[in-house]
Give the backbone structure.
Amino acid sequence: MSATTAGSRRGKSKQRGEKRTKEATGASGGDDNRVSTWLDAQKLTVLGTACLTLVALGLLFASVLDFGSAGNDDRSAEAPERMASAPSGQPPDLSTMTPREAAIRLFNRVMMADEQGNADEVAQFAPMAVAAFNQLESLDLDAFFHLGMIHAAAGDAESALNAAERMQAVVPGHLLASVLEHRVAVDENDQDRAARAIERFETNYDKEIKVDRPEYRHFQRLIDHFRIEIDGATGAGS
C-alpha cells in the first residue's frame, strides 16, 4: 500500500470520527436542552383555576442587591460583594459596623446560603441574623420583613408568618407582607394561602405603591418582579 493511499484512508477515517463526535455532542446538547425545558416547566403549578408561577427563590435572589441596601447605613450597599468574598462557614467581620448594618450583612449571608442550597450555612447564620435584628433599638416594617425572610429561609414558617402578620397589623395590605406570606406558602405547598397572598397583593398594589415607604424603596426590584410574575402567569399583563 502506498503512502498516499494510506494517508487518504486515515484522512477519511478521521473525518468519520469527527462526524460521529459531532453527532454525539449534538445529541448530548439536545438532552441538555430538554432537561432545561423540563426544569423550566417545573416552575409552574396550578393554584385554584389560575396558573401561577411559584418562584419564591427566584423572587428573592433576583433582588439580592436590593437586600444589601435595605438599611440606613450607606456602607450596607456593599454587602453582597463583601458577603460573597467571605470564606464559606465563617461569619463576616462585624466589628466596624453599626448594629443595623451588621444585621443586614448577616441577613445577606443567610440569603446567599439559601440561594446556593447550603442548608448548613443557613442553619449556622440564621440564628445570628435573627439575634442581630432583635438587638436593634426598634423594629420597623423593614426589619420585620428581613426577619421574616430569614425565618422563611431557615424553614421556620410560623415565625415568618408572624412577621408578616405584624406588618399587616401596622399597615393592612402591606405589599411586602404579602410577598413574605407567599414565600412561606410556596415553601409549605399551601396553595390556598399562596392564592390569598397574591390576591391581597393585587388588591392593594395600586394604593400602596404610591406610598413612600423606605422598605418599598429598598425592595423595589423584588416588588416589581413579583408583580411581573403574577401578571405573566395570569395573563393580566397581556
Remarks:
- The first strand starts at residue 44 and ends at 47.
- The longest helix spans residues 3-41.
- The two ends are 71 Å apart (CA to CA).
- The CA atoms of residues 71 and 101 lie 7 Å apart.
